[in-house]
Amino acid sequence: MSGLDLVIAGGTVVTAADTYAADIGIRDGRIAQIGHNLSGADRIDATGLLVLPGGIDAHVHLDQPTSDGTTMADDFASGTRSAAAGGNTTVLPFALQIRGQSLRACVEDYHRKAQGNCHTDVSFHLIVSDPTPQVLGQELPALVRDGYTSFKVFMTYDDLVLNDAQILDVFEVARRERALVMVHAEGHDAIRHLTRRLEAEGRTAPYYHGQAHAQIAEREATHRAISHAQLIDVPVVIVHVSGRDPMEQIQWARARGLKVHAETCPQYITLTADDLRGLDMDFDGARYVCSPPPRDADSQAAIWQGLRDGTFDIFSSDHCPFRIDATGKDTPRARSSFKYVPNGIPGVETRLPILFSEGVSKGRISLQRFVALTSTNPARLYGLYPQKGSIAIGADADLTLWDPTLTRQIRQADLNHGCDYTPYEGLQITGWPVRTLLRGQTIAQDGRPCGDPQGAHLARGTSEAFAP
Length: 468
Ligand code: URP
Ligand code: ZN
Ligand code: ZN
Ligand code: ZN
Hints:
Radius of gyration: 21 Å
Bound molecules: N-(aminocarbonyl)-beta-alanine, zinc ion
Number of helices: 13
CATH architecture of the domain at 55-368: Alpha-Beta Barrel
Low-confidence stretches: none
CATH class of the domain at 55-368: Alpha Beta
Number of strands: 18
CATH superfamily of the domain at 55-368: Metal-dependent hydrolases
Oligomer: single chain
CATH topology of the domain at 55-368: TIM Barrel
């Protein structure tokens, strides 16, 4: 049988379950055959390469306004080009509700920003910063039915923080509508207390951001989020978990059968609080300021254990890029105190190479775990499976061809993001994506995006976190 548009021939197919040699036949943008000696109108020789389900980065910030007027370094065009070059075929950015704004208007705003500009598929999570009766009673239920099946709530940040009563309200809507809530778990009052104390002592350099956002505050908020989820009986994802202490809370919850899922990110296996020192406790440390901040060697070891043993379901970038210049991090206010440094670092393009190299190439995790953490589990958890996240007949032909032997350093000069630095400059990587295909079309090759933006917005189904 033929009629195939394209065959990926001679590669090693890797899924979350298996590794095997096979050709993949693509028709009309979907996987139509998996077998041997396939032929079609077109052919890509994948000899010596791994064929992976396209990366799904489930935590990406693009073109978000900030409360102090600094601009994010990536819009939907540059952010998704960067994602494609890094082996991703789908990203899940946020539609951030500004207080006073209708959530529906907010979503439409982000659609306008994304429309016609995306090189990968995209689908929005909703950030709920103003859970009014209208938002809780009408807008969220309607939006979930339209395929926006995940929300994020914040336990810190002045302009986003919800109090416990509000979090419980959002959890209740999520339970009723079967939406998955992502929680930014850091205790706001503890952070503010530590911030005031550090500022009074004249400790205002970026390094002290890491001290103010103490791991104890993350642990406490993680436990509080878990307790609230238990009270309402709703599944949650604790996102960007930074270290051992919050992990222990997640493991405590799991041991009790609570439906608590967890995400971690590249910064927590590659960076430490010491990176925020910069050159000499100077402003250079601002390039590593993100929340939660990177911790220490002990937490890195704990995170690796959690990536192996299933404590973590997903590995996302938390790409949140600000340039290290006056348009981004380096403002007079930010120089006056760490608390004004925009939080976030770029990473959508380097997420997969970092986990592959530090994880698979160094023997810390299996290929199956790599695929599960970076593609299959994000698809399952966020209602995209089985259209996305696997290599199977009928699935979208979203594929990443990977050269496990290719070795080079991460260098800002080679990246495609809109940021002017990478926090991973000089990191030696073994294993890089060499070609990314979205629905059978090549969207990046050898580290460069190619072609016109073909990405679509995906309406999502219910999270598998609601499965019995
Ligand atoms: O510092 C970070 N991670 N900024 C992005 C916003 C968030 O909390 O995820
Ligand atoms: Zn967050
Ligand atoms: Zn889970
Ligand atoms: Zn984030």
